[in-house]
Write a structure and sequence with these properties.
- By secondary structure, the chain is mainly alpha-helical.
- The chain has one domain.
- It is built from five helices and no strands.
- The longest helix has 24 residues.
- Helix 1 runs antiparallel to helix 2 and helix 2 runs antiparallel to helix 4.
Amino acid sequence: MSPIPEIYYRAGAVAKGNKMVEILAKVYEDNLNYYFSLPAKFSDNYDNEKQQNLSVLHRLAVVSKQFNQTQLSKKIEDYVNQKIKLMK
């Protein structure tokens, strides 16, 4: 994951940090949406990629929560939890 959002947050540029989190989250969510849209016989081949994308999204949620961006963090965590349920 890019350290840029955290750098922005630490510098007090919360809006820029949020924007970076939103951009990165969108990329990883789009990837996951694609992987989960595949038929099971293909989707199962992407389990590592799914886990990596979920891990990055979780990290984005943690960083945003760490800097009191609870609404943004919750949005990302809700998405992550929804996708994790699909993997079981």
